[in-house]
Design a protein that fits this description.
- With about 130 residues, the protein is an all-alpha fold.
- The protein has one domain (about 5-130).
- It contains 4 helices and no strands.
- Helix 1 packs antiparallel against helix 4 (about 105-130) and helix 3 packs antiparallel against helix 4.
- The protein is elongated.
- The N and C termini lie close together (about 5 Å).
Length: about 130
């Protein structure tokens, strides 16, 4: 695989690790009782049930951030993580529009959607570029 493809994959893994890490920290803060909005949607709530759900979500987001960090060390072998992440991001956007958009502050929600679409584009481009330039 050419060096440019490797560098694009590595950059995608770094960006994904940072993005998921930031979301995980935000969700842990919500889980521990901080009254702050969810950075992906702008949604804000309180209560033990919501905090517990955010705690569980934060654990999984932490795990995904670790998986993306792991991909950085063998980017060509682990590039499939990027396309899986892109698909999950797309599913999250679709489901939020279908079922949850009325819960969100529209400006923040649209910013979150835009950022996810940019990540989908970056991850997909890196993945397919690396396939094409073996």
């Amino acid at each position: 695989m050419n060096q440019r493809a490797i560098q694009l994959l590595k950059l995608s893994f770094v960006i994904g690790t940072i993005a998921d890490g930031l979301v995980a920290v935000n969700w842990y803060l919500i889980a521990f009782g901080f009254s702050i909005p969810n950075i992906m949607t702008g949604y804000s709530d309180s209560g033990t049930g919501y905090e517990f759900a955010m705690y569980i979500a934060a654990l999984f987001m932490t795990g995904w951030a670790i998986l993306l960090f792991w991909g950085l060390f063998k980017p060509a072998d682990r590039r499939d993580l990027l396309i899986i992440t892109a698909v999950l991001l797309l599913i999250s956007i679709i489901l939020e529009f279908l079922f949850f958009q009325k819960l969100f502050i529209m400006n923040t929600f649209l910013i979150g959607v835009t950022l996810r679409l940019l990540l989908i584009g970056k991850f997909s481009f890196s993945y397919f570029y690396s396939i094409r330039n073996k």
